[in-house]
Amino acid sequence: MNGYNSAKAIRKIEDPILANIPIIALSANTFDEDRQMSKQCGMNAHLGKPINMPELLETIAKTIQEASNNV
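Request: output the structure for the sequence above.
Response:
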């Protein structure tokens, strides 16, 4: 199962708390269509490799904040 399929499966979980867990793609594929596919599959964000740690930490914080606002 790849990341896209994993995200789709997680979003189909009946428990809303589990189904809405934040998902951030970390991928070497960074074309617009890759980012769009991540969003279409239910991921919250898509970051390219190599990982930029400040960007990753900022994205994690932002994603958690957005998730907590939706609870």
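The mean pLDDT is 95.
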